[in-house]
Amino acid sequence: MKYAKTITVALAVLWLSMSALPAYALDAGVENLRQTGKAFAAVARKVSPAVVLIQVKGKVTGPGTVPFSFPFGDDFFRRFFGDEFPGFPQPHQEQPRGERQVIGQGSGFVFKTVKGLLSDKTYILTNNHVVANADKIRVQFNDGREFDAKITGRDPRSDVAVIEIKGGGFPSLPFADSSQLEVGEWVVAIGNPFGLSHTLTAGVVSAKGRTSLGINDYEDFIQTDAAINPGNSGGPLVNINSEVVGINTAIFSRSGGYMGIGFAIPSNLAKNIAEQLIEHGEVTRGYLGIVIQNLTAELAGSFDVKPGKGILVAQVSEDSPAQKAGLRPGDVIVEYRGKPVTDVGDFRNRVALTAPGSKVELIVLRDNKEKTLQVTIGKLSEDKLAGTSPARSAGEIGLTVQTLTPQLAEQFDAKPGEGVVVTAVEPGSIAARAGIEVGSIILQVNRRPVKNAAEFQRAVKASASDRRILMLIRKGDMQRYVALGW
Questions:
Q1: CATH hierarchy code of domain 46-86+97-283
Q2: Rounded to the nearest 10 degrees, how much is the dihedral formed by the CA atoms of 433, 437, 441, 443?
Q3: Which one of the listed residues 74, 107, 129, 346 is annotated catalytic?
Q4: pTM, whole model, 2 decimals?
């Protein structure tokens, strides 16, 4: 009887304990959410004072008087939002030509202050497309203070710009090492979407190393699902330690607004470019002198290489650092400066960020054997830039094209900057069935001229929803239109 009473009491205590578990778990969950909210609030308090609203006025020449203009131009927005974005003139509407005023706004953040003999200077990092056409720039801080700003330097190829204001004592944001960022980490975007000053959104890192998107010449984007909208451009993407991991730059959208895919320039790349702009007013990039392309499964099989290992050298420019080092077409670059090479975009960035004159080690596969080459990196100039552009693939139609370098233009009796040359046609593809051949020059896509491979790729992507595309092609002395549908 004594044992029975003991067991009954124990069961009663156990039942009471278990009945209390759901309430305890609920309280713990609420507390976790409360702490998460406080963490985001702490980030906002630390970061917002260094974030600015950038307002610009400028003038551009061309058609397109619209109810609301953007400092980076209508074409930039069409690349991401399509012609249905509110305020865009529709294709059938006749637009006046001539000079027109551009009024718009974006975001930026203070990252550096230096002391001068006459006055201090405060440097603000933003996107090039925010200030590219600006005649007048004004920045506004969260506390309401406003200042006139001027451009310190711009780099259109990476879409990074630095502007400066007089004075010091402004809060600034530190940079994190973006190479240490991991997919799944919390990130916070702060900026001025649609002019709504100092808006905070939170999300995670969705992917890293996004290249070949056709947005910039040099790409290594962080992809995030933190809400980014027009006006966020140039604002910081920060981690939960309130450190900058990227500059919010672009979104993918079919509606003109947030769809869960945003892109940010990683802080390591942005910081390198910004420091060069401050010190020299321009960016100096390393140069190898090769045309490269990713190894598709078919190409990897042809060169007896594992897919995803290395990139393929398609062309070597005469008298270039690559030629002097012994690099040849058909070589597969598998390692650069001691680190594996797997992607064209990443490799181009690494070469570009290597100081000219540096001696570096390349490991290539040639005839299925590893070979080590010593290369002295050259300096990239404008006349060499076209030759470093990678081949661009339009997988939907089965084409790979290349920007017309001076050498290619001479070979195909064309002019640099007027069209792209077809370097590969996938057997059985839409392009192949339409009779498009290697060596053809694509002059126009949907009746608009294409000047380089990036423009061609963007034009094809813009046709993805219609699944139809019209191209003007020349082969030899013959020129014709080709309509493709898929």
A1: 2.40.10.120
A2: 0
A3: 129
A4: 0.67
